[in-house]
Amino acid sequence: MAATLGFVVVAIGLQAPVVTILAFFPMWFISIAFQQMNKADPDCGASFTWATRAFSPRVGWMGGWGVIAADIIVMASLAQIAGQYVLDLFNANGIGNNATSPWVLTVGIAWIVAMTWICYIGIEISANFQKALLGIELTMLTVLSVRALVRVGNGSAPVGHLVPAASWFDPFKVKHFSGFVVGLADMLFIYWGWDTALNLNEETVDAETVPGKAGVIATFILLGTYTMVILAVESFAGIGASGIGLGNSAHTNDVLSILGPAIFGHSTLASVLDHLLLLMVLSSAAASTQTTILPTARTAPSMSVHKAIPQVLAKMHKRFLTPTVSTVTFGLVSIALYAVMNHLSAGHVIADFVSALGVMIALYYGLTGWSCVWYYRKTLTASVHNFFIQGVLPLIGAVILYFILGWSFWYYWNPTNSYTHLGIFHHQFGGTFILNVGALLLGVILMITMNAVRPAFFRGETLNRESPTLVTEDFVTKSEQAH
Questions:
Q1: Are 304 and 314 in contact (CB under 8 A)?
Q2: For position 86, what pLDDT does the model report?
Q3: Residue 231 β-bridge partners
Q4: Kind plus residue range of the DSSP H or E element containing 421
Q5: φ, ψ (nearest 5 deg) of residue 281
Q6: What pLDDT is recorded for position 473?
């Protein structure tokens, strides 16, 4: 929300709460698709494995690449937020608020290194760390929301605050359809991440059921949390273009660091709460960074074991029982992309990265929805449950997400709709469009290369609908022993 809420408000105005609710439905429907596919095949490759089984090796390969590309792209935004908030937490606001500061870049890189190390040394440590972080986040979000609404109710909110209205929940009040779709695409980033549980299925008790339930339940927790916070923050700050208004371009990249002192005030207790809010955003950045590294570091070994990418990426640590090479490689690639894009965008990497993420998320989430429908196509009429849970709902989710994907390419073709620009062959291209097209082209190039180097996978010899899960039994056994 720190990185995205400002952009959502700019796109759709007061209707942010209803778009939050509407964006939940494709997420929920796709989480059901993940749950159903996980029942059939609890493979840590998730979207990659399932799309390969349902359609073809090349479709599956691009599904796996969608996971990896989305995770690499988001790391720059998470690192930037972490870099700024670490400095703010230690009252170095002058530096933290300067997105171009080399100190922000340095702290952001150190953040990626630290989170990569935690993921490297074990899933149990990562899971326990997540529990502590989640407790901080949910507590502070509730305190923030209640305090904001109380101040709105008693009249002590600043000038520009708004009283919640029923019209905020009317999607037809959104002025422009393009803004509505852009808002939905940005909300995909806010909801994204619940699928990490499905990439950890082979390291989970009751692999066929627990991860799927976790993914579905998580979407409902996110819905309740985000609706509460966005309603409260929008009421307290308003959407004006000055002061603490959510439409103020001066802090579009980060609304929470501005709203904390405004909501809590300036007493000693308020200062403590404000710093706890900063800590909350940091803990969220830590949690998000972990849940970005973990699925990529599992997708890559699955692709490697199925001979779709180099074999070295399947290497496991004998003591920590984690994928070592894929984890470290992902961390290094993330650092390189963050440093380059931070330089090219003069520190303003968040805006276009958030927008680009919507396309990558829609790509592999939607593909999982299509895979579910096609995989179960012969049994959809066996019962009403199958028809809706394995057919209708995943299909609706996939259609919505692929509409957002297609619309985003059309919308961001216009460079004025991106926050950064780059001239190529005497033509200006927006940063969002370049990121999306570049990611997909790179994926196609890598797929063609791997087809030449490791053709067995692409001939359907290592993974198809009938083949058993090929992730090594040794990996599964060791993971079970760890529990």
A1: yes
A2: 83
A3: none
A4: strand 421-424
A5: -65, -40
A6: 39
Distance CA 184, CA 361 (A): 12
- Listed in sequence order, the residues at least 6 apart from 433 whose beta carbon sits closer than 8 Å to its beta carbon are 409, 412, 413, 415, 418
pTM (2 d.p.) = 0.87
Mention the CATH class of domain 5-482. Answer: mainly alpha
Domain boundaries, the chain: 5-482
Strands 421-424 and 427-430: antiparallel
* Distance from C-alpha of 469 to C-alpha of 463, rounded to nearest angstrom: 8
Dist. CA 85–CA 338, nearest whole Å: 17
Residue type, 275: H
- What is the Cα–Cα distance from 146 to 150, expressed in whole angstroms? 6
Q: Is 173 exposed, middle or buried (0-12, 13-18, 19+ CB in 10 A)?
A: middle
Residues of the chain with pLDDT under 50: 470-483
How many helices and strands (H and E) does the chain possess?
19, 2
> 3-class secondary structure for 431-473?
HHHHHHHHHHHHHHHHHHHHHHHCHHHHCCCCCCCCCCCCCCH
10 Å CB burial of residue 54 (0-12, 13-18, 19+) is: buried
Which three-class secondary structure state does DSSP give residue 384?
A: helix
1's tokens: 């929300």
Residue 477: per-residue pLDDT: 43
